[in-house]
Amino acid sequence: MDHVLELHNVSKRYPNHTAVDDVTLRVPKGAFFSLVGPSGCGKTTTLRMVAGFDQPTAGELLLNGQRIEHLRPYERNVSTVFQNYALFPHLSARENIEFGLRRRNAPDLATPVNKVLDLLHLTGKESRFPHQMSGGEKQRVALARSLVLEPELLLLDEPLSALDPQLRKRVRVELKALQRSVGITFLMVTHDQEEALSLSDRIAVMNKGKVEQVGTPQEIYHKPATRFVAGFLGHINWIGDAGVRPESTYIASEPRNGIARSRPAVIRHAMYYGNCFHVEAEIDPGITAISEVPTDEHRYSTGQQVHVWWHIDDEIRLP
Amino acid sequence: MNRLRFWCLAPATTLLAVLFLVPILIIAAYSLLSRGPYGGVMPPWTLENYTRLADPLYLSILWRTSLYSLAATAVCLLAGFPLAWFISRSGPRKSLFLALVIVPFWTSFLVRTYAWMFLLRDTGLINSTLQSLGLIHQPLPLLYTPFAVIVGLVYGYLPFMILPIYATLEKLDPSLLEASADLGARPITTMFQIVIPLARPGMLAGGVLVFISCLGAYLTPDLLGGGKTIMIGNLVQNQFTAARDWPFGAALSLLLMAVVMAMLMPVLRREKDGLL
Q1: Is B96 inside any structural domain?
Q2: Is A74 within 8 Å of B181 when comparing Cβ atoms?
């Protein structure tokens, strides 16, 4: 497979701590690749090293097979969409989008700018200044400003975090469609596991400066390599050595046998999520399991004696 | 709440009214009276003090004052901007550098101007160093020249340029600089396309502060210009002291105010319409 970006044993060490610790990653051409992890896990530092804002203290960065560690940000054919968008406040939407083309002495500004304005539904808004734009418009101008340069790799730093929750879901769909239509490789940093699962072709889960697992969203969710990965993406019930997702955990009044395992438990409480309840049952002191119960099947009360059961096939077992 | 507003505004308003508005009204009244024999003013009311302002001698002093002030402001801007930029980028040592900019204010302006006389005179540090190095044989005429006056003005008012520019650069979002580099701009392009346009409010504020201060300067041209290159401030001072012509001095002061207003209005109006 062709890789746009390769990181070989990349580290970023400071005198008192290590932000990125011996990270090796390969980003396939045309992919929507996400770096996901809790804050401080090194995902943003990794992105900044690819952009050229930070220098790795060890390791190699390759863009289309060429070493880039020594290149300044303005010498790399990658472009960044910043978390706060970083639009130039004294320039209009059109001038913001033209900025990179002008730096490349592009002979024709109007054709590519109009094309990208159209692509991002910004036609008619090109003369607005950043302080006159909504959050969604700012984000689209930031995307347009980078995409107009047709970079080999687009870096997105928490691109949806500055939007309000309702807009975020809609923009997520648009972002995925946009990536498909332009065919540019996206490397996104996010701490939002739902965002990573729904947008990405591949995900790298990071923790404490290290990559814990790389894989497709399904692999990451159903075959987590570590306890950290299993717990970071979605909830997981640990019952002995077996991990079970809440949607595979059932509650019944009688024990189940055969292909299922079951344990007696006591209902502790239930949380309503609109489409379902998350019912928490205590199996042993300190061991609880959450079961996702459809709204119309929830008939449990606190203190009730029940049996928690799951299919053996749904168990997640870690080496 | 209104009561609170009143008591918050009262001290400053009273001070301004008593110490600023009243003296201006007195000056305005003086400028319309005739000169008394030993200073002071006396009737009758007259406009003569204003018609005398049209004298080419006074107009040339006004012209020179504007020219020197403009030159000093330009030098302050060219020297102050890079320094303000440097300070705003110097991380934890920022406050130390800022303090160093302000340190000269701890000493009397008069003393500092005398120090410049010692530096610039024929037997001063600059000339004697250059001579001992064999670079010159005759002392350079430095003191009592327009050069000395402009050096003195720049020295005196440079902090007024640095501080407002520093304030705007300090607020500049670092991700804008990264975004500019990310989009392919070299540092010099980022400076001219992003930093300088966004620092404009600070540059304007600094420019206005320095320019106005220079227009009214009288100590610097007096000491470093040696009375040969007098500015309008010296002329005003002279009318109230040696010349004992208070009404004309008052008219000159008001002319200076009018010039300042006339030069500031376009700047302020443009800023109001401007983006930032």
Answers
A1: yes
A2: yes
A vs B: CB pairs below 8 A: 63
| Domains of chain B: total | 1
Instruction: Name the residue range of residue A268's domain.
Output: 236-317
The residues, ordered by sequence, that sit 6+ positions from B177 with a Cβ below 8 Å of its Cβ are B190, B194, B195
Using one digit for the tens of pLDDT, what is the confidence trace for A31-66?
999 999 999 899 999 999 999 999 999 999 999 999
Residues A199 and A136 in one domain: yes
| A43 and A177 belong to one structural domain | yes
- CATH number where B107 lies: 1.10.3720.10
Distance CA A124, CA B149 (A): 55
Q: How confident is the model at residue A188 (pLDDT cuts 50, 70, 90)?
A: very high
Q: Which of B180, B183, B271, B275 to mutate to probe the A interface, most A CBs <10 Å?
A: B183
Q: Give the gyration radius of chain A's Cα atoms.
A: 23
Please give the model's pTM, rounded to 2 decimal places: 0.84
Residues of B in contact with A78 (CB under 8 A): 182
Could you tell me the two tokens for A171?
A: 């923009």
In this structure, the strands spanning A276-284 and A287-294 are antiparallel
User: B12-41: b or e for each residue (b if 16 or more CB lie within 10 Å)?
Assistant: eeeeeeeeeeeeeeebeebbbbbbeeeeeb
B179 and A80 within 8 Å at the Cβ level: the answer is yes
In a domain, B52, yes or no: no
Task: State the Cα–Cα distance between residues B245 and B257, nearest whole angstrom.
Answer: 19
Q: Which residues of A190-205 are buried (b: 16+ CB within 10 A; e: fewer)?
A: bbbbebbbebbbbbbb
3-state secondary structure of B117: helix
Searching chain B, which residue's CA lies closest to the CA of residue A73? B182
CATH number at residue A244: 2.40.50.100
What interface predicted TM-score (ipTM) does this complex get? 0.87
Interface test with B, best of A90, A109, A141, A148 (most B CBs within 10 A): A90
Task: Please name the member of A74, A89, A131 whose beta carbon is closest to the beta carbon of B185.
Answer: A74
Residues A39 and A144 placed together within one structural domain of the fold: yes
Q: Which residue of B has its CA nearest to A142?
A: B179
Contacts of B193 in chain A (CB under 8 A): 99
Question: What digits encode the pLDDT tens for the residues A84-93?
Answer: 999 999 999 9
Give residue B276's pLDDT: 38
CB contact under 8 A, B173 and A86: yes
Domain boundary among A228, A253, A271: A228
Closest by CA to A84, choosing from A172, A153, A158, A189, is: A158
User: What is the mean predicted confidence (pLDDT) over B180-189?
Assistant: 96
Question: A213 with A255, same domain?
Answer: no
Chain A CA closest to residue B184: A74
Measured in Å, how far apart are chain A's first and last C-alpha atoms?
A: 28
If phi > 0 it is left, if psi is from -120 to 50 it is alpha, else beta; for residue B227 that is left
Give A23's contacts (C-beta < 8 A, 6+ positions apart).
A7, A9, A10, A11, A42, A46, A59, A206, A209, A210, A211
Total number of domains in chain A: 2
Same domain, A46 and A183: yes
| Interface contact A127, partner B, CB < 8 A | no
**Interface-testing mutation among A80, A113, A146, with chain B (most B C-beta atoms within 10 A):** A80
